[in-house]
Amino acid sequence: MSESAKTIIRTVGLTRDYQMGNVILKALRGVELTVREGDFIALMGASGSGKSTLLSLLGLLDRATSGEYFLEDVEVSSLTRNELAAIRGRRIGFVFQNFNLLPRFSAWENVALPLTYRKGEFGVEEQRKRALESLTRVGLDRRAGHQPMELSGGERQRVAIARALVTQPAVILADEPTGNLDSITGREIMSLLDGLHAEGKTIVIVTHDASIAQHASRICTMRDGILTEGGMTHVSA
Questions:
Q1: How far is the CA of 142 from the CAs of 25, 105, 111, 133, in angstroms?
Q2: Is residue 136 part of a domain?
Q3: Contact 169, 90 (CB under 8 A)
Q4: Taking the CA of residue 141 as centre, how many other CA atoms within 13 Å lie in the half-sphere pointing to its CB?
Q5: Most confident by average pLDDT, 46-50, 93-97, 104-108
Q6: Domain count, the chain
């Protein structure tokens, strides 16, 4: 990716500590990461290395203990919970290992959920229109009326990807998106993400699978809360 591309994410000395009784667990140790528009980055590491913790911070689902996090040049660490939720709902698309679909909602209703949270911005017909457009992008428009239990695992993950796309986010964050899928279906999902990247989408994916990471244009490795290979490394005391 060109150095002149727009910076989507920049972290400076990011740390995350957890109090475990009398012990402080340092989950992140001064992470410095830059994600530019059009990047496809894989965060690799063993269980407990800090990669999912970092993804949660990048997705504004958690707050850092110290350091700075700039999302599209906005320093977000001092924002209120409501301000964070507003940014998260507009600029970040999530894809989870467990799909996180509402079982009683149809595919299109699940995809439209991020739009329903933006009260007053989209009527029901506009929500449905945008959801169907997003489902079409992942090849599931003909399954729009089906509930999750009527879909295969791969189809559920496609619905989750369509939901991540529906707000036209600045970045897609995917946490082990093939973790609950068989190898063939997993390759299909990665092919879909490859296609989105080819369209110019910015993607950050967490994985422990080296074959999945090879789809990325840049691999960053987490170990003991430290980011290396593709990201600058700075260890906090």
A1: 48, 16, 14, 11
A2: yes
A3: yes
A4: 9
A5: 104-108
A6: 1
